[in-house]
Design brief:
The complex is a heterotrimer of chains A (about 300), B (about 475) and C (about 325). Chain A has about 300 residues and is mostly helical. Helix content of chain A is about 70%, strand content about 0%. Chain A has two domains: about 20-55, no CATH class; about 70-310, Orthogonal Bundle (MetI-like fold), CATH 1.10.3720. In chain A, a hairpin with a 7-residue loop joins β1 (about 55-60) and β2 (about 65). Chain B contains 19 helices and eleven strands. Classes of the chains: A mainly alpha (about 300), B alpha/beta (about 475), C mainly alpha (about 325). Chains in contact: A-B, A-C, B-C.
Chain lengths: ~300, ~475, ~325
């Protein structure tokens, strides 16, 4: 590194005058802080505050906003669709947990045990994550075609199973959404579990072997307990993500058939943007604030836990 | 085409500027910025709605020809075509964001609400000046007249609901394509025959994005029912639980579950049902009588397969649901743009309805670009003027009129009925799941569904 | 899976590079970072002794077969099908979805998708959006982290908490107010609405607390001696930033870049809302919009084209991708 000989900066003056502030580098510090401050102030902090304010207002962008107290919250709570949307979202989250949660753990454990081909396996597993989500959904919509010649129905036909309606039925639509979502997300989780598995101290296995532990016992008594932290983190992250599920119901079914896939976020979207004659921004923000409150608590728990683990 | 590349270039410029400095955002090319006349006042830029996404190149060619003609006659106006489609989400976003074109079209159903919200430009004086206030069909003009007696738009096109059918599939099923079904029972029989013979959906119906409610309402009316009554004092009463609606849902249930001739898609809307129909996968469906233009232009339909007849009518006091749209001016434009906008509406939408030269010029431009000319519509002016205009352009008509004869011969005998006025789209949205439930649940309790929908609709109307 | 707004998703702090207690020297850090590579583990559950048993060896072969079959079917299968369908006529795809070109290959699908439905233009738009989002995110993340970690003005603590606090706010809460901010920007007013302006996508994406946290933690672990030495040599804040800090930060900049570009490429709901003009929309917004007016074979060709760049980028930068995924893969986008 070449060292250039500049005179050292003038010592900072004790008195806080604008000039001394600049001399002490205050201005250049501020210049570096400015992009962050501006962007966050305009596109993050203000909107967050505005969201809370708007949930107590009635506004259509054209006439001045008026205060309506808790009317928006009341309107949301009285909406017959809210119950449906909450139940559907819980159903999505539950299905995603049952179908999608154990799979990446199992795959990662298996992948970490093979000696060769780990790189190829990781790449293959991660491939669906790279596909743009919109493309993935539109492609799977083709797969889910309900005709006997649809892609999935053809496969079922090979096993002698009759054609399924997939997205066209109230009972199968949600599971279909979850299957695609699981496919799209599993790769990312596998990679995270893989990284976690690699950090399991080998001494633990060695110690277990000294005690004569079998492969199963090692998996059960060493690997899983070591993964506990990461599994819990992934669990909260998945709940955070599934509580905000939007893309799949929006593009696959639009919430149908017969409201069987309307989720909370889809409902927010509908309040704000669906009505052709101007959105009900008050109801949309009211529901957002309620959902956000729930999620913020989860995030906080999650952050506390991860922070503790990362510093311990 | 031209306009699209122009906007891409503009976006590129924005990119370059944006990458430099934050402050570049003040020069953002939002809707209004582009619509106001430039400082020199030499030329007014007018952004006008053209076609929905997916229109073919020929449609834009025809538009470019007309754009050039108009600009030649009005050298002080620079017309910029903007892709535009009336769909719930996009429209609301554009409306709120002020990025709508200066001139666009809105369905009758929404004009009343837009008007009450002050979202349309007052064009009373302009219509007066153009001298055709009195030529409009008064029923239609009423839809764009505010409580203050002012007029807020130009009714430009109307349609009646019709039954569209695929002549090929009819023939394959041994049905006579020149003698389409005239009752709902015959529709059901024909649907059954088509599915048995071809394996295709004999009959299909829209069910999502408010179109389910729209079609349910249309078929209710054709069976003598009404989904709403106008109390005359600005309030409305929901009458969804009526015999006509019930019969319609029972019909759907039977076609879907008893005959299994509905096909498997219960998630079609205006666009996707057109796509399926144009691809030859659907025997019959109901939609506006003017959909032929879009079927051929946007969905690649083979004209030889197309057939159109009137809605089957039955029950007491049946009618045919009609609708249409009005050309309106964005409420935010300045006076110069407004004047240019009115000129464009008069030239592009209105003159061809009442002036022989304009009608011929319009038809020849469309025909030259291979666009549909002569698709059956309902007159927004008088029936006489409409029939007169069809004679003017007889040489250019390129739609298979004889395949539409079952419709054109009988439509004048049907009673036109307007769409329900109170909370139209919201109630359509409410009815979508009702239609979907009947189509996805074999054991759906139709009476219970209707009772619930009726209560929910009334709650909306009482707000 | 998450709301596709540009807003920061709640993310993991555990996935940060773990902070060594004391400021360690550069070579030590390098070694520490290389450790979590996915391919070179020291050992796992199955010991070398286990592997010598025939039963275990057979089982491991079984695991190999299981992994290859499952991962090829699930990971590659849909993409191969898409590649095939992209050059197959519609009727063949509909009637025999698994037959290999019973009626020949239809290469024209690709060119039709490219030119007739303007995939070329939307492709370009997508690249512009990704490039801008990348540039803005990088500028804000590096300067912000530099302020918080190195310059540390008096207000740094407050700023730090304010930025971190946004991690707890789910993106959904921003949707409507952020949209209204774009429609009616502060100070500029509605006449300068940012609708249809790419800044409306780039700037909110730049307000990403996760990026700042990521870069800040990295800066925190840079050797203080180097920074102090440079300061003693009279390097001002700009020189320090440009010639010392940034060159040492390539690894983390790579990770942030991958996140930024992927997020921008994936984003759907936000551009749908703020870019209503089709002429400026990215692929993710246009593909669903043109679906109903496009024949299936051309549409599938369009989907295939839209997938090529991300896949190619992944294959080229596989290591960076997988390392990023292991690091902060928790960011669902």
């Amino acid at each position: 590194m070449t060292t250039t000989q500049h005179p050292p900066a003038a010592p900072a003056s004790r008195r806080a005058t604008p000039l001394s502030w600049i001399r002490a580098g205050g201005l250049s510090k501020l210049l570096f802080a400015l992009p962050m401050i501006l962007v966050f102030a305009i596109f993050s902090w203000t909107p967050i505050v505005r969201s809370v304010v708007m949930s107590f207002q009635k506004t259509n962008l054209l006439t001045p906003a008026e205060w309506v107290g808790l009317d928006n919250f009341q309107a949301v709570l009285n909406d017959p669709l809210l119950g449906t949307a909450v139940l559907n979202t819980l159903y999505f989250a539950a299905l995603a947990l049952v179908m999608g949660f154990p799979v990446p753990i199992l795959m990662a454990v298996l992948m970490s045990e093979v000696k060769r081909g780990k790189g190829v396996y990781s790449a293959l597993a991660y491939l669906p994550v790279v596909v743009p989500p919109v493309v993935a959904v539109l492609l799977w919509k083709v797969f889910y075609d309900g005709s006997p010649d649809g892609v999935f129905n053809t496969i079922l036909g090979w096993f002698g199973i009759g054609p399924q309606p997939w997205l066209q039925s109230t009972s199968m639509a949600m599971p279909s959404l979850v299957i695609e979502a699981t496919w799209a997300a599993a790769g990312g989780s596998i990679i995270i579990y893989l990284a976690a598995l690699l950090s399991v101290p080998p001494e633990l296995y060695d110690a277990a072997e000294v005690d004569g532990a079998s492969i199963w016992r090692k998996a059960w008594h060493v690997t899983l307990p070591q993964l506990r932290g990461v599994i819990f983190v992934m669990l909260i992250l998945q709940i955070l993500a599934t509580a905000q599920v939007f893309l799949e119901p929006f593009l696959f079914t639009g919430g149908g058939p017969a409201n069987s896939t309307v989720t909370v976020l889809l409902l927010i979207y509908r309040y704000a943007f669906q009505n052709s004659l101007g959105g009900n921004y008050g109801m949309a923000t009211a529901l957002s604030v309620m959902l956000a409150g729930f999620l913020a608590v989860l995030s906080w728990v999650y952050f506390r836990l991860t922070n503790r683990w990362s510093t311990s | 085409m031209m306009s699209i590349s122009r906007r891409t270039a503009a976006a590129g410029v924005t990119l370059a500027a944006g990458a430099m400095l934050l402050t570049a955002c003040s020069s953002g090319e939002g809707g209004e910025a582009a619509s106001s006349s430039d400082a020199g006042g030499s030329k007014v830029e007018l952004r006008v709605a053209t076609f929905p996404p997916g229109a073919d190149a020929a449609a834009y060619e025809a538009f470019a020809t007309q754009e050039a003609q108009f600009e030649e006659a009005n050298p002080d106006i620079d017309v910029i075509g903007v892709e535009y489609e009336w769909t719930g989400p996009t429209f609301a976003v554009q409306l709120a964001g002020g990025s709508l074109p200066d001139v666009f079209t809105v369905p009758f159903t929404d004009s009343k609400t837009l008007l009450e919200n002050g979202q349309l430009m007052d064009v009373t004086d302009e219509i007066e000046e153009l001298g055709y206030t009195d030529s409009f069909n008064p029923v239609i003009l009423d839809g764009v007249t505010g409580a203050d007696g002012h007029i807020y738009g130009f009714p430009r096109q109307a349609y009646a609901m019709g039954l569209h059918y695929n002549r090929d599939l009819f023939e394959q099923a041994g049905l006579d394509p020149d003698d389409p079904p005239a009752t709902w029972d015959e529709v059901r029989e024909a649907a059954n025959a088509i599915t048995e013979a071809t394996g295709k959906a004999g009959y299909a119906q829209m069910a999502i994005n408010n179109t389910g409610g729209w079609q349910l309402t249309a078929q209710t009316v054709s069976r003598g029912g009404r989904t709403q009554s106008d109390d005359g004092d600005g309030t409305y009463t929901s009458t969804i639980a009526n015999e006509g609606t019930k019969a319609t849902l029972q019909f759907l249930h039977d076609v879907r579950w008893e005959d299994d001739s509905f096909g498997y898609k219960v998630d079609l809307d205006w666009g996707t049902i057109n796509q399926e129909f144009a691809a030859g996968n659907i025997g019959m469906y109901t939609s506006g009588s003017d959909v032929y233009t879009a079927l051929v232009r946007d969905f690649g339909m083979d004209p030889a397969q197309y057939g159109l007849t009137v809605m089957p009518l039955e029950g007491d006091d049946p009618g045919t649901l009609g609708g249409g749209d009005i050309a309106v001016v964005s409420p935010t434009v300045d006076d110069a743009t407004k004047a240019a906008a009115v000129k464009w509406i008069d030239w592009y939408y209105m003159q061809k309805l009442m002036d022989e030269d304009a009608a011929v010029a319009d038809a020849s431009a469309l025909a030259a670009a291979d666009q549909a000319v002569g698709t059956p519509v309902l007159p927004v002016l008088s029936r006489e003027l409409y029939e007169q205009s069809q004679e003017w352009i007889a040489d250019y008509i390129n739609v298979p009129l004889d395949q539409m004869a079952p419709f054109t011969d009988r439509i004048w005998d049907q009673t036109p009925v307007g769409e329900p006025k109170g909370k139209t789209q919201e109630i359509y949205a409410l009815l979508d799941p009702v239609v979907q439930t009947v189509l996805t649940d074999k054991d759906a309790d139709i009476d219970a569904l209707l009772a619930q929908a009726d209560a929910d609709a009334q709650a909306l109307l009482d707000q | 899976m998450s709301a596709d707004t540009a807003a920061p998703a709640p993310v993991s702090a555990a996935t940060m590079p773990s902070s060594p207690a004391a400021a360690s020297s550069v070579p030590e850090r390098r070694r520490a970072r290389r450790k979590p590579s996915l391919t070179d583990s020291e050992r796992g559950i199955v010991s070398d002794a286990d592997r010598r048993q025939p039963r275990v060896r057979r089982a491991m072969t079984g695991v190999h077969i299981f992994l290859s079959v499952t991962l090829v079917l699930a990971g590659l299968g849909p993409l191969l099908w898409l590649a095939k369908a992209a050059v197959t006529p519609t009727q063949d795809t509909l009637r025999q979805p698994f037959a290999l070109w019973p009626n020949g290959i239809d290469w024209a699908n690709l060119s039709t998708a490219w030119s007739d439905i303007h995939i070329d233009q939307y492709f370009f738009n997508t690249i512009v959006i990704a490039a801008g989002a990348w540039a803005f995110q990088l500028v804000v993340a590096t300067t912000g982290a530099y302020t918080l970690s190195v310059l540390r003005p008096r207000y740094a603590r407050v700023l730090n908490s304010l930025v971190l606090a946004t991690l707890f706010i789910p993106s959904v809460v921003l949707l409507v107010p952020l949209y209204l901010t774009i429609v009616d920007p502060p100070l500029l007013g509605r006449d300068h609405s940012l609708l249809n302006n790419y800044l409306a996508v780039w700037l909110p994406m730049a307000a990403n607390a996760f990026n700042i946290l990521l870069v800040k933690r990295f800066f925190d672990n840079l050797p203080r001696e180097v920074i102090e030495a440079a300061q003693t040599d009279g390097a001002g804040p700009f020189r320090l930033f440009w010639s010392i800090i940034l060159p040492m930060s390539r690894p983390i900049l790579g990770v942030v870049s991958v996140f930024a570009i992927i997020a921008a490429w994936k984003d759907f709901l936000w551009p749908l809302l703020v870019l209503p003009d089709p002429a400026v929309q990215p692929l993710s917004v246009r593909l669903p919009a043109v679906q109903s007016q496009t024949e299936l074979d051309v549409f599938l060709a369009a989907l295939a084209i839209a997938t090529i760049i991300p896949i190619a980028m992944f294959l080229i930068f596989q290591r960076v991708f997988l390392r990023s995924a292991g690091l902060g893969g928790a960011v669902k986008g």
